[in-house]
Amino acid sequence: MSLSSPPPILSVRPSRALVDEAFEVLVENLAPVSPFTLRSLHHSEDGDDWEAYGHYFSDHSGRVSVSEDLSFGGTYSGMEPMGLIWSMRPVPGSRTGLRLRKKDVTTPMLITVSLYNGHEDFRGNSPLVSMVTERWYMGPGIQRIEISDEELRGGLFVPPGPGPFPGILDLWGGGGGLLEYRSALLASRGYVCLALEYFKTGQMKSTDMSFEYFEVCGRFMTLNLSFFTFKFFLCGSVLGPNIISKPPGKTLSGEFNKIRVDENNHQIWRDVGLALLKEPSMKVDVAKINCPLMLVNGCDDQNWCSVETADDISKTMDAAGKGHLLTRLDYPDTGHLIEPPFSPHCVAGNFMVYSSNEKVIQRYGGKTKPHSDAQDDSWRKILSFLRRHLYCSHRARM
Fold first, then answer.
1. Do both 147 and 119 map to the same domain?
2. Residue limits of the Acyl-CoA thioester hydrolase/bile acid-CoA amino acid N-acetyltransferase domain (predicted)?
3. Which of 74, 101, 136 is the last residue of a domain?
């Protein structure tokens, strides 16, 4: 670009949005039909840098629109309006087994979008122009209430306004700890949502997994919400992949010999789940379910036998004459961690095995582009499912 040329103008609209909302990235005042690279960069709360980038050519008017133009390489290719977000990965030289998750939902994810000349390595060069955009899990007016006493631990998120609001109980999987970002996002979509912590990271105990704890949670939700239709469980890539009916520690540990490793020494756990699936005593009788249920399955899940578990649930509910209550979503080339839209795909991540206090890297599976598409599609259908069975059923009774 000549010294007399006007500087490029980079815009990201909206510059502040919820994480499940798409944005538009547009660059103007560029040299016509010239190569440029657009890069996104995020410094995580864990201290790691994540990036995505696409190689573009400006059009004859000197514009690049990520929503309308093709990326000819980078971390994504083709016309991908949100490729600068969902294709993020740790920068070269980062620690292994990283997973990008928001810890403090009261603050935004800050993502810097930058423009560089050419398609060559940009990391040692200065950007032509940059802009910071905010991505939020917690929308304006959402109230976060910490729940911490002898009976219950979690974070309660309440939408603004008088209500009434449907209530959702948000559960996570075997990693433990308190994760709130999905609950904050659901509250931003009009639901009172309780993110429940039921054991500390790496410290699973049988007492933490007793059903009495969840009964206390149910009573809390019923007594403290102005309107609570039913409890809706979101857990891993399958909604309630297989609810354990007795303390799982000893039985689960007994199946650890079925863990396999791939060529990168990443552990594959799905055969452990297959073994437990053959034990009737380890399963809740889903034939007793009397409310709508949605199963969201990654068909390349290497961490849990999601599809087989869904098959088992479907078969049991069909036999009980309750198949009409079941909605099932199966996504090819999709792994275990089906997150909210545009979340970076984690094919393998660090995990603390509670029985041995050993840190391993688990393989979760999936291919980045299909996995990202599944996250977007499933989130829209989950929100539709919730509206239909929570909000609509409430209005029908009024």
1. no
2. 20-148
3. 136
Confidence of residue 202 (pLDDT cuts 50, 70, 90): low
The span from the CA of 255 to the CA of 274, in Å, is 10
Give helix 270-277 / helix 306-319 axis angle, nearest 10°. Answer: 20
Q: In what order do the strands lie in the sheet with 35-43?
A: 16-18, 129-136, 109-117, 35-43, 49-57, 89-90
Domain at 26, CATH number: 2.60.40.2240
**Angstrom distance (rounded) from CA 28 to CA 287:** 59
User: Is this structure's pTM higher than 0.85?
Assistant: yes
Q: Say which residues have a Cβ less than 8 Å from residue 217's Cβ, sequence separation at least 6.
A: 152, 154, 169, 194, 196
Handedness of CA 243, 246, 247, 250 (dihedral sign): negative
Token pair 């059009």 in the structure block, residue: 59
pLDDT at 374 over 80: yes
- What pLDDT, in 10s, does the model give residues 286-341? 899 998 999 999 999 999 999 999 999 999 999 999 999 999 999 999 999 999 99
Residues 269, 249: Cα–Cα separation, whole Å: 15
Last residue of a domain, which of 76, 108, 136? 136
